[in-house]
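User: Hello! I'm new to structural biology and keep hearing that structure can be predicted from sequence alone. Could you demonstrate with ethanolamine kinase? Please show me the input and the output so I can see what each looks like.

Assistant: Of course. The first part below is the input, the amino acid sequence of ethanolamine kinase. The second part is the output, the predicted structure written as tokens.
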Amino acid sequence: MGAAKIWNAMEVAEGARHSVSSKIPSSRLTVDHSLSIPLMKPKIVELCKDLFNQWLDLDDSHFSVETVSGGITNLLLKVSVREDKGKNGNMTIRLYGPNTEYVINRERELQAIQYLSAAGFGAKLLGVFGNGMVQSFIDARTLTPSDMRNPKLAAEIAKQLRKFHQVEIPGSKEPQLWNDVLKFFRKASTLQFDDGEKKSKYETILFQEVHNEITSLKELTNRLNAPVVFAHNDLLSGNLMLNEDKGKLYFIDFEYGSYNYRGFDLGNHFNEYAGYDCDYSLYPSKDEQFHFFKHYLDPDQPNEVSDKDLEALYAETSSYMLASHLYWALWALIQAKMSPIDFDYISYFFLRYNEYKKQKENCFSLAKSYLSKPEHG
């Protein structure tokens, strides 16, 4: 059985005329994500010439293409162009992964990226095409999960995240967390697998139990009245870059960005301390979280933040940390069906869902204790 797309997404290139500024060039061309770099290069050169007229007369030898990274949902390429006057230019081309429209709202991403770029976040959007986008090149290294534990870097991430949350994106300000989780749930709970091993693992999932957990967590978090901000929603180490010479930190890749609850962005970021191995013993301690919160709440005078404000944000973040586990657990099931990447997504579902169940009692107790205080009664 096939799966309907979660969002009724347009073809990106066709919709670019409406989703991005008319000043941003667009192309209907696509590039096959699965090609090797030598086979991909002629397609990339054709695309560059279609988007940027000043390069029409350059032959292929003026272009070089190399892989920067290959994530779970996209492939990032560095393209260098040597112009006739001896001037060299670098840019990045991001190819969307196959079937990512099932979990990523590209229309929403394209709208937000222009405003975030104008506010100093990420790379500048230079062009869009059938299955990707062209952006300016960021000369920086990607962080590792252990980098995020560094107190100095944690403070800078917190400061930048506060600024990120202050960016205004036009359109609806409705938080998307539970809309997305429920969309993911509807798709994830109706999948069918041909692969015998996937099928047997999938059939052990108690979807009524999962739905009950979504309902109870949603009810709890609604009582916390967390502020709604434009959130990154995927602030893992791979989406943080650092130019150490300039001391400049960059947030990149806004694929999952949306208006959302502040606590979700914080709790989701803390979950990423566990790294790609999902070692949740690395989740930040209360003291580490308070260090982050102080620089988030008051970047200029972090030591002036009150204990009351720290405890409130701790309860909020801990509750939404649970929501992060449910979100990515369900996301993984859809990927298990749709993604061509060789990764055991169903086992990843259990990693995230089991961690949710492990942390649930403590986090629910913390939130209820906080809510029982007289000022919240």
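User: So the tokens describe the shape?

Assistant: Right, they're a compact way of writing down the 3D structure. Reading them back into a model, for example: The longest strand covers residues 74-82.
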